[in-house]
Write a structure and sequence with these properties.
The chain is an alpha/beta fold. Strands 1, 2, 3, 6, 7, 8, 9, 10 and 11 form a nine-stranded mixed beta sheet that branches. A two-stranded antiparallel sheet has the order 4-5. The chain is globular. The chain starts with 7 loop residues before the first helix and ends with a helix.
């Protein structure tokens, strides 16, 4: 999925720590001459996002001349698989992107992640809220530095909505279906969906489940992996019913999410479709795919509509807090200093400028100008319940099965009960 600061005193402090560490215990990351080399994996493969990480690493290296960081940028859809292979082989990168939830819990259980709780500086804690650390925390221990707040909802073209005579964004599911009908009547593809990558299609099931299931059910299921509550089946029925109205772009099953003008993000970027259900990294992706590779000027956002009769709390949201972890084998002083550097206000402002996504740093959030990102942050701030993406919450085995099952449902190869059965089968193997 997608990618987009401390004080001078902290930088001096970090350098002092690293100066001591460089004479340390002969960690495998050291060349024996005081130089420490680390590997770093992220998922920004092109454009401003890749340039941001290149500059961030170069600036950190300049401030810490005893550290060398080798960067590898990996396509988002490939990252989880490659990372799991590397972790299992004992050859993991020192610093890498991960998204918390069940996936992180499995890494912690396997002894693959560094506990960085005691290495989060006071300066970092001043600009990143305790709540933002929760998705990266297990049993009171922090295993990653959060860098971005990425709630989900519909990003849409105000121009295409106006063309279809839609004067207010949908608040209920019925209003969303009316908007779909109006867009079709205006000759506009209503919703772009990159189902080829599976997870964007599964977002519909996640959001319907968030509306149909209570927050207690969503949370407890992460512990039990029991999908017996009727709300899980009802969410599948909602997806099936909504898909039956044909709201998606032509060929959505073979459309990718974020790669090229023909992707779902590209369809919105080029006014070939009116909206896309996606996380808050989407504006940056859309902007990279417009004809001039600049932010879409008529872009706006609204939350996933409410459903009458559902057990979910009105205003509840789904979304990730992207974080970066250190491998348990990484050189601790250098790796955690790099994590704290990511949290600096100036670095987080540059993150926002590169990715056009909400930074996690509260001071950096003050420079956000786009109305749609302000709307995202406002909705996030007042949400009564926020869950991470369900494939993250429920771990890799269940998550992959869930994503695949939703695509099968949309393709007409399965039904809502088949979806639930597939997820239950995966849960037994988890």
């Amino acid at each position: 999925m997608g990618a987009r600061k401390l004080t001078a005193a902290l930088a001096v402090s970090a350098m002092a720590v690293l100066g001591i560490a460089a004479c340390g215990d002969g960690d495998s990351g050291s060349d024996g001459g005081g130089k420490v080399t680390m590997s770093f994996w992220h998922n920004a493969t092109t454009g401003d996002g890749k340039a941001f990480w290149d500059k961030t690493v170069a600036d950190f290296e300049a401030a810490n001349p005893n550290v060398k960081i080798n960067i590898q940028s990996i396509q988002n859809e490939d990252l989880d698989g490659k990372l799991q292979t590397a972790l299992n082989s004992g050859d993991a990168p020192d610093v890498f992107l991960q998204r918390g939830g069940g996936k992180m819990a499995a890494m912690v259980k396997a002894g693959q992640l560094m506990d960085v709780t005691g290495s989060i500086t006071g300066a970092t804690k001043q600009v990143i809220s305790e709540a933002s650390f929760k998705p990266q925390t297990i049993d009171g221990k922090i295993y990653a530095m959060p860098v971005a707040v990425l709630p989900g909802g519909f990003f849409y073209s105000k121009e295409l909505f106006a063309k279809a005579g839609i004067t207010q964004t949908p608040v209920t599911l019925a209003e969303l279906q009316t908007a779909v009908d109006k867009l079709k009547a205006a000759g506009v593809q209503p919703i772009a969906l990159g189902a080829k990558d599976a997870w964007p299609a599964a977002f519909y099931y996640y959001f319907f489940a968030l509306r149909e299931c209570s927050s207690t059910t969503v949370t407890e299921t992460a512990k039990t992996l029991s999908f017996d509550d009727p709300c899980w089946l009802k969410a599948g029925q909602d997806v099936q019913s909504f898909a039956a109205t044909k709201p998606f772009n032509n060929g959505f099953l073979t459309t990718s999410a974020q790669q090229g003008a023909g992707s779902s993000a590209g369809l919105v970027a080029n006014h070939k479709a009116a909206m896309e259900l996606m996380g808050a990294w989407d504006p940056g992706v859309i902007g990279s795919l417009t004809p001039d590779q600049k932010p879409l000027p008529d872009l706006d956002w609204f939350p996933f509509p409410e459903i009458q009769g559902g057990a979910g709390e009105p205003g509840a949201m789904l979304g990730g807090v992207d974080g970066y972890s250190c491998s348990v084998k990484a050189p601790k002083a250098e790796c955690t200093a790099f994590l704290n550097y990511m949290a600096k206000t100036t670095v987080q402002q540059e993150y926002y400028n590169a990715f056009h996504a909400p930074p996690v740093n509260s001071e950096a959030q003050a420079v956000v100008t786009e109305p749609y990102l302000k709307s995202v942050l406002a909705a996030y701030g007042k949400a009564p319940f926020v869950s991470q993406w369900l494939d993250t919450v429920y771990g890799q085995n269940v998550g992959n099965a869930l994503n695949t099952a939703v695509v099968s449902l949309l393709a007409g190869k399965s039904d809502p009960q088949g979806l639930v059965n597939a997820v239950k089968a995966a849960a037994k193997k988890a």
